[in-house]
Write a structure and sequence with these properties.
With 332 residues, this protein is an alpha/beta fold. The chain has helices at residues 51-61, 93-100, 110-117, 179-189, 203-217, 226-235, 239-263, 273-277, 279-282, 286-292, 298-301, 314-331, and strands spanning 10-17, 21-29, 36-44, 68-73, 76-78, 81-83, 104-109, 126-130, 142-147, 151-156, 164-166, 267-270, 306-309. 38% of the residues lie in helices and 22% in strands. The longest helix has 25 residues, at 239-263.
């Protein structure tokens, strides 16, 4: 008998690039199997002159020859250029491809990539915020939402040629749901003509929210960075730091409920770096209470499971899934 041929393995560089850090890995893609990631490296974006410099550094330390890359990156691609307010440098697809020495380079929205990865998420990486894993009849469409340096959102459908709807929901106008949020929004409107969701519901947004609350409570701010603020809240050493994360979590829950209603989502996946770092506050109850506080739609949302995803490689995994799906369509 002739031995069966092994499935061809295609190596692809995959990256997840945010405003602060970039993570890069080598993905091995086999037909019909989930991608496997190897050689993960983490880069500080501020420490490199460009995205091309990061990719070139990764290529230099990678033993295998590879000339194809897919980058999940915060922002919206307009022609050759990326529109983003949180990155340390401008990004041109053509220039990045040439400077990194790549044959092929694709840029996709970071939360579009996260949404592509959702079918590959294992149950043991899901922590319930509303409902329980496995109880839903059908999870599609699934809303993917998450605060990091900015605020990302996308919608994942069950299948089809375009199973993901990317969005820039983080740049939609911020809305308030109670008197305190109205006062915070009023203060923010004195600083910016357009106050979008990211002004509060992001890592940098925490440092807008905190001084607003300090001003309202008549207390001088103590913390000058997101890291210090979150650490103080976890330690319980500052009442205003704790209140900041409580208000943030509840406000994020309200937005998640609004988007779930808007898109008719049957499940919600909460990702993003901030979600992991403030997990106890998200699980304290404020997030779920505001997620459900939608009037006549509350009973509907009670049936929508909301999960916090404890998986740090979703962006890179999704970039690999996106590439595999694109390749399958090309040969079909």
């Amino acid at each position: 008998m002739t031995p069966a041929l092994e499935s061809p393995v295609e190596p692809v560089i995959v990256a997840d690039v945010g405003g602060t850090f970039a993570r890069v890995a080598l993905a091995e893609i086999r037909p019909g199997q989930p991608p496997q990631l190897h050689g993960l490296r983490r880069y500080s974006c501020a420490g490199f002159a460009s995205l091309a410099a990061i990719l070139a550094d990764f290529i230099a330390v990678t033993a295998r020859p590879v000339d194809t890359a897919v980058v999940a990156i915060a922002g919206l691609l307009e022609g050759d250029h990326l529109v983003n307010t949180n990155l340390a440098w401008p990004v041109s697809v053509a220039a990045t491809r040439a400077e990194a020495g790549l044959r092929s380079l694709a840029l996709i929205n970071d939360f579009e990539a996260v949404a592509y990865a959702i079918p590959c998420v294992q149950p043991d990486t899901l922590v319930a915020l509303n409902g329980e894993p496995g109880n839903e009849s059908s999870p599609w469409p699934a809303l993917v939402l998450g605060p990091g340096t900015g605020l990302g959102a996308a919608l994942r459908f069950q299948g089809g040629d375009q199973p993901v709807l990317a969005s820039e929901a983080g740049h939609a106008a911020l809305t308030a749901g109670n008197a305190l949020e109205l006062e915070i929004l009023r203060q923010m409107q004195q600083r910016w003509e357009h106050v979008d969701q990211e002004r509060i519901l992001s890592g940098s947004g925490l440092m807008n929210l905190y001084p607003c609350l300090c001003g309202i409570r008549g207390v001088a701010p103590r913390w000058q960075s997101t890291e210090a603020l979150i650490a103080a809240a976890h330690a319980g050493e500052d009442v205003l730091a704790v209140e900041t994360l409580e208000v943030f979590s509840a406000w994020l829950g309200s937005l998640a409920g609004d988007l779930a209603i808007t898109f008719g989502a049957r499940s919600v996946y909460l990702a993003g770096g901030i979600s992991t770092r403030i997990a106890p506050f998200l699980h304290a109850g404020g997030f779920r209470a505001r997620f459900l506080a939608k009037g006549v739609m509350s009973r509907v949302l009670a049936q929508v499971p909301v999960w916090r995803v404890e998986h740090g490689e979703l962006g890179m995994l999704g970039a690999a899934v996106w590439h595999a799906a694109r390749r399958e369509r090309a040969v079909a």
